[in-house]
Amino acid sequence: MKPFKMTALGLFVSYFKLTGCFSRNAKLYLLSNFLISVGFSFFGVLFNLYLTEGGLQEGTIGSILSLIGLALVITAIPSGILSDRLGRKRAMLIGTLAGALLSVLRALTVNGPWLLSLSFLGGASATVYTLSTAPFMMENSREEERTHLFSASFAVMLLAGILGNLAAGGLPSLVRTIFGTGTFQAYRVSLLLGSAISLSALWPIQKISETQRDRGSSNLIDLKKLQQGFRASGGFVWCNFWIGLGAGLVIPFFNLYFAKRFGASSSQIGLYFSVSQVFTLAAVLIGPALAKRFGKVRTVVVMELLSLPFLISLGAEKVLFVAVLSFWMRASLMQMSSPISAAFMMEIVPDDVRATANSIATMAWNLSWTFSTAFSGWAMQHYGYAIPYYLTAGCYAVSAVSFYLLYNRKEQRQNVSIY
């Protein structure tokens, strides 16, 4: 095993040299991903605050958020098959347009039943887009740059999050000052602006050039392909289930965690989220070098295990500074592993079932996320914010150990490293 001698400067020079070689399609995708992520970050910072300002409690909010995950579960396999049949471009166009319009509608109401329906439909549209992205990157990258493209996609999302979180955090105060509106209306205006930004992603997606795909069987669901997808993604299903279970307990409620436990304002929360994205961006950029040196599986496992103490700290912490620092570290470590594991899955899954296998693994993540989000909203409302963080640490530990046992030898045996 050779010593790890690459300097920080050499790492970034090598990284950006490869990103400059991305195809035109890949670059258009990265632009669309940036715009969608900016709009999404507005909802990440403000939507729960908007709902609480509108009179809804954590239990109800948890139910609304869980419907997004439920939609992802129900529509994951059909969305993967739709992407394989229609092509990535058409699927991404459909998902982006529907998602942006549904975001507008969600920003115009605080009616519980309506929000439940809109959240379900929003989750379905997000599924159509999201499950097309990994196969799209696989099909529009060369072997030597593939992990870099997956990491670049994640880095673009983080950069968009930095800008979007800062803008979303400060925009309500600006709207109140300029227009003299109340906090509730300021949140609504900000969410509508975020929806408009997401809608603008249609332009770069439309510019993507895609060759006509072989649509295969005339049946809506190819049972043979579905069976192959289940067989190829089995281990990822198990690991994703535990990650989703833990993620659903805490991630949808980070803004409420800081607002309720520490009395943080929307601008403070936006700042915390943005700095978190800065740390995570740096972590994601060095991810490919770590995967090259130590292997994808080991990198994923170590990063997930290192995040556990920070999750426990978030549950127990009463000092804002320490809680914010733990929040930043947890996000950096966990999200560094995401593009690496996604690239690894795309490399070991047969090319004709990539979207289907991706949809099955994503379905497992969102199935557990759905139930844990609904449970966590109720638990936080009645018992406080600590217990879900401890449970999340346990779930992530199960996933990390399982991932190592399932795939470490497989990676070594097949030598799937792109380098």
CA gyration radius, whole angstroms: 20 Å
Number of strands: 0
- Average pLDDT, rounded to a whole number, is 83
What is the first-to-last residue Cα distance? 15 Å
Summarize the topology.
Layout: H1 8-19, H2 24-53, H3 58-86, H4 88-106, H5 112-139, H6 146-179, H7 183-199, H8 202-207, H9 223-250, H10 254-262, H11 266-294, H12 296-306, H13 308-316, H14 320-348, H15 354-383, H16 387-414
Write a brief caption for the model.
The chain is mainly α and 419 residues long. It contains 16 helices and no strands.
Structure description:
It is a single chain. By secondary structure, this protein is mainly alpha-helical. It has one domain: Growth Hormone, Chain: A, CATH 1.20.1250.20. 83% of the residues lie in helices and 0% in strands. The chain contains 16 helices and no strands. The radius of gyration is 20 Å and the shape is globular. The protein starts with 7 loop residues before the first helix and ends in a 5-residue tail after the last helix. The N terminus is likely disordered.
